[in-house]
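Lest this sound abstract, we think one record worth quoting, the chain in one-letter code, the fold tokenised, each line plainly labelled:

>
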Amino acid sequence: MVDQDHRPQINIVSDVSPAIIDRVVMMHMAYYGEHFGFGETFRETISKDLLMFSRGLPDPNSRLWLVVSGGDVLGSIAIDGACLGEGRAQLRWFILDQTLRSQGFGLKLLDTAINFCKTNGFREIHLWTFSDLHAARTRYLQQGFRCVEEAHGAQWGREVLEQRYLLEL
């Protein structure tokens, strides 16, 4: 539980510091490393992609939201509205620190990202994940996403059944 003086807030970030990138990567590594054995390849991929994304901010079609409490980053989600073009956005870097899980912050982050896409006239939201993320898949399906593609791949350093989900707006 988070102490009352440091209630988590969801903030838009337009200037992404190296410390923010490091923290988002660290959260991903802590979760995916522990539960799925993802290692250095995964860390390098996330670091590189998040750095490239951050260099394009501020952008009217892209956003990074962070859950922050007492100056600590405890969650993130991003919409990359530039990478797919043609009214399509990509949902990326959706992660919560274990201290915030099961408190509604995941749903708040997803709702924030989806509402941003609706407001900004996107037709579709795409996200790439893998089949072992059962809780995330349930959340995506509840929001109206559907799995439209599956293929075995090892882009994150270990073979998994990769999935692409689509939400038509």
User: Anything to note?
Assistant: The CA atoms of residues 77 and 94 lie 4 Å apart.
